[in-house]
């Protein structure tokens, strides 16, 4: 799991119970994972295709700092799949776990399009940038 973006939880991120609003967290994850898919595939046109079961493990509070972790799982012809965990940066308490988030490379008409990447090319890129299997 590679932990990338950090977020400070502010008043506008809270729900009616004064804990982190789940929709806001999913927005952050979707954006972060989308950027990760673009960098892995070297394509700018990717869309979120599928998000598996979501486990909101623990709540988070205002002033907490959280970090978004992503792990490469698999690559297909037009798709790429990651796992995700978000945790408190200091206590390491888990806040959310998502088994699989799938992104699909699309053409200008929004149809799925082969991205041309393979497991080997992804691994080679990771080795060159010192991030192995992440
Ligand atoms: C993404 C989209 C173009 C894919 O269309 P599609 O007809 O399913 O395309 P394909 O059948 O060619 O499948 C494309 C890839 O998605 C994968 N896929 C399709 N349905 C899937 C599912 N339910 N779960 C996981 N992967 C899935 C396929 O396995 C395929 O992967 P591969 O090429 O690596 O083997 C279409 O579903 C779409 O436009 N969805 C809306 C995307 C969007 O707007 N997202 C933003 C949030 S609303």
Query: Can you tell me the CATH topology?
Result: Thiol Ester Dehydrase, Chain A
CATH homologous superfamily heading: Hotdog Thioesterase
Oligomer: single chain
> Roughly how many Å is the radius of gyration?
16 Å
DSSP strand (E) fraction?
A: 35-45%
Biggest β-sheet: count, sense, barrel?
Answer: 6 strands, antiparallel
Euclidean distance between termini CA atoms: 6 Å
Counting H and I runs of at least 4 residues, what is the number of helices?
2
Helix/sheet category: alpha+beta
Report helical residue fraction. Answer: 10-25%
Low-pLDDT regions: none
- pLDDT averaged over residues: 93
H/E order of the elements?
A: EHEEEEEH
CATH architecture: Roll
* CATH secondary-structure class: Alpha Beta
Taken from the alpha-carbon principal axes, the silhouette is: elongated
Number of domains: 1
List the ligand species. coenzyme A
Number of strands: 6
Can you give a write-up of this model?
The chain is an alpha+beta fold and 134 residues long. The chain has a single domain (2-128), classed as Hotdog Thioesterase (Thiol Ester Dehydrase, Chain A, Roll). The chain contains two helices and six strands; from the N terminus they run E-H-E-E-E-E-E-H. It has helices at residues 22-41, 119-128, and strands spanning 2-8, 46-51, 54-56, 65-75, 79-88, 94-105. Strands 1, 2, 3, 4, 5 and 6 form a six-stranded antiparallel beta sheet that branches. The protein is elongated. The protein binds coenzyme A.
